[in-house]
Specification:
- The chain is built from 6 helices and 6 strands.
- The structure holds flavin mononucleotide (FMN).
- Flavin mononucleotide binds next to helix 1 and strand 4.
- The site of flavin mononucleotide has 17 residues, from helix 1 and strand 4.
């Protein structure tokens, strides 16, 4: 099971990166292969409909990673109650790549509970026919110790649970979607009539 862990670090001690790392470690412990994608370090450009990104190496590498991934971790800082511009831009480059795959979503915030940021990401996932875990996490500035470690035990527990659940439930969803997709491709009309995978065959 391949997991792509997506974030955008706009500062050296990015709490988004630290948060991704906690979920990623738990996902690895549950048996996943996890790769990180910092969309800023990868220099992903701003998506434009009137621009052809076929020759853009950064975009094509990102798309290869998202196609190959079986599930995703996405962590965004909350900006004015929204997901950050960088994470929204990541979503805007994708659609089919997310179908039938499970997402673990978390927000880093100054002090809020990150509900609207997480809800926005959840909506974006849903509109691409992806699934998000039925719970999410927000990590506030005060949850981190001065050395940058996450000191708030409940947030830590929750992030670790997300990593574990992403792998265990994500594997089931992905297997079923792939099975439906294969059935549709070989003309199994029963699956074609019932499964949303039929839209992707
Ligand atoms: C433009 C901007 C808007 C922000 N808006 C909010 C907000 O609405 N609610 C909140 O709790 N924190 C807000 N913050 C604080 C960030 O969410 C917080 O510092 C976050 O941990 C930054 O993540 P990072 O360490 O990965 O950069 C905002 C920060 C910036 C720069």
């Amino acid at each position: 099971m391949k997991i792509l862990a997506v974030y955008g670090a706009t500062q050296q001690d990015s709490r988004s990166r630290l948060t991704v790392n906690v979920i990623a470690e738990a996902a690895r412990a549950a048996g996943a292969e996890v790769q990180a994608l910092d969309v800023l370090a990868a220099a992903i450009p701003i998506m434009r409909v009137d621009q052809d990104f076929a020759a853009d190496v950064a975009v094509q590498q990102m798309k290869q990673l998202t196609r190959d991934a079986d599930g995703f971790i996405v962590v965004s800082p909350e900006y004015h109650g929204c997901m950050s511009n960088w994470i929204k831009n990541f979503f805007d480059f994708h659609y089919h790549e997310f179908a039938g795959k499970l997402f673990a979503l978390a927000a880093t915030t100054g002090g809020s509970m990150g509900v609207s940021c997480n809800t926005q990401m959840r909506v974006a996932v849903q509109h691409c026919h992806g699934w998000a875990l039925p719970y999410q996490t927000a990590v506030r500035e005060a949850d981190f110790a001065p050395d940058g470690s996450l000191q708030e035990q409940r947030a830590l527990d929750r992030l670790q649970r997300m990593g574990r659940d992403l792998v265990i439930y994500g594997r089931l969803l992905r297997a079923q979607f792939e099975q439906d997709l294969a059935a549709v491709k070989t003309g199994d009309t029963v699956s074609e009539s019932i499964g949303f995978a039929g839209w992707y065959a």
